[in-house]
C-alpha cells in the first residue's frame, strides 16, 4: 500500500467511513446512507481542501485514534471534542497538520454525538454503487473501523480551505422537527395526531444510524390490522406496534410495513444526528 494511508490505533465505539451517500438506488432496496450530519461533513472537507463529497470518518461518542503514514492536513468538526497530536492539544474546527507517524487522537464528544475527521485527499476505499459510505443496514461499503485497519488516502490538493469560525450550530437543547403529515396519518386517531404535535418526546438510547427512536406518548391507531409493505423515505416517522415514533435516518430500510404518520424535513435531520439520549423532541406541522 502507498504511504498515503492512515492506520487505526483505536477504532472507538463506532467509527465509519462516510461521504454524501448513494442516492438513487431505493428501487433496488439500497438505502442512501452517508453522513448523518452532512453539513459537518461538507465543512471539514472544505477545511481540508477536498471536494464536498470526499469520504471522511464519522465517529460516535468516544472518538478514535489514528496514525498517518505521511504528513497530512486534517480537519475535525461536527460534535465538539478534544483533539491531540502526540498527546499535545490541537485545534478543533480548523486545519491541523499531522506529521508522518504521529498519533492523532479524537476525544469523546463534549456535546452531541458524532464528530467528523477529514484528511487532505479524502479516504479512498473502493466505492460501491458510487459511494464509499458504510451502510450498517445493508452491509454495503467498508466495514466499521477496527484496530489495526489501514485506510488509503487520495492525493492532497494544493488548495486549503478556511473559515473564520466553524458555522456549526452545535447539538440542540431541544430538537424541533418540522413535519408534513402522512401518508398514513389517517391510520391514527384524532387524539393520537394531537398528541404527536402537542406532546413532548425524548431521544431514546436505542437510537442509531438507522433511526432516531423516541420515548413518549404512544400513538393509538384508528385502523387495526396489517399494512402492506411500502416505500420508505429519509425522515419518515414510522410508528411500530408499541406506538412510539421512529424517525428514519440515513441507513433506514427502503420499505416497511408499519404506518408513517409524517415525514421530517431533510434540513432538520442533521440536528437529529447530534441529539443525545434524553434530548426533548417536539414535532411542528408545516405545509
Q: Explain this structure to me?
A:
It comes from Streptomyces tanashiensis. Keywords: ATP-binding, Hydrolase, Nucleotide-binding. InterPro entries: CT_A_B, Cyclophilin-like_dom_sf, PxpC. This protein is mostly beta strands and 287 residues long. It contains 3 helices and 20 strands. The chain has a 7-stranded mixed beta barrel. A 6-stranded antiparallel β-sheet has the order 7-6-9-4-1-11, with no helix packed on it. Strand 6 (83-85) and strand 7 (88-90) form a beta hairpin. The radius of gyration is 20 Å and the shape is elongated.
Supply the key terms.
287 residues, nucleotide-binding, elongated, seven-stranded mixed barrel, mainly beta
List the helices and strands and how they pair.
Layout: E1 5-10, E2 16-18, H1 38-48, E3 56-58, E4 64-68, E5 72-78, E6 83-85, E7 88-90, E8 95-98, E9 104-106, E10 115-119, E11 150-152, E12 175-181, H2 190-198, E13 201-203, E14 211-215, E15 230-231, E16 236-238, E17 246-248, E18 255-256, E19 260-264, H3 269-274, E20 280-285
Parallel strand pairs: 12-20
Antiparallel strand pairs: 1-4, 1-11, 2-3, 3-10, 4-9, 5-8, 5-10, 6-7, 6-9, 12-19, 13-14, 13-20, 14-17, 15-18, 16-17, 16-19
